[in-house]
Amino acid sequence: MSSLLNEREDMTEEEKALFLHDLKEVCGQYFETEGAYSADIARTPNGFSVCVLFNAVRVKKFRKPR
User: Fold this and answer.
1) Helices (H), 1-60
2) Is 24 exposed, middle or buried (0-12, 13-18, 19+ CB in 10 A)?
3) Under a CB-based contact definition with an 8 Å cutoff, are residues 43 and 22 in contact?
């Protein structure tokens, strides 16, 4: 678990955009996506709740790595 000194209450809009950019690359491996991604990050008693929304037009075929 991270140190309390490193914890923050929120992400800046720039950090959130970088997070969504990275996530879009990963999601692209599993889904054919369309449109914008959005994220809602909220503080909870146990840390954070992260909800990411995007539209997918299909699920890609993928296999378990050997």
Assistant:
1) 13-27
2) middle
3) no
Eight-state DSSP code of residue 4: G
| 4/7: higher pLDDT | 7
Q: Is the pLDDT of residue 11 over 70?
A: yes
Residue 48 has, within 13 A of its CA and on its CB side, a CA count of 14
Output the pLDDT for position 20. Answer: 94
The rounded distance, in Å, linking the Cα atoms of 39 and 17 is 9
Structural contact between residues 48 and 42, judged by C-beta atoms closer than 8 angstroms: yes
The closest alpha carbon to 17, from 52, 60, 59, 56, belongs to 52
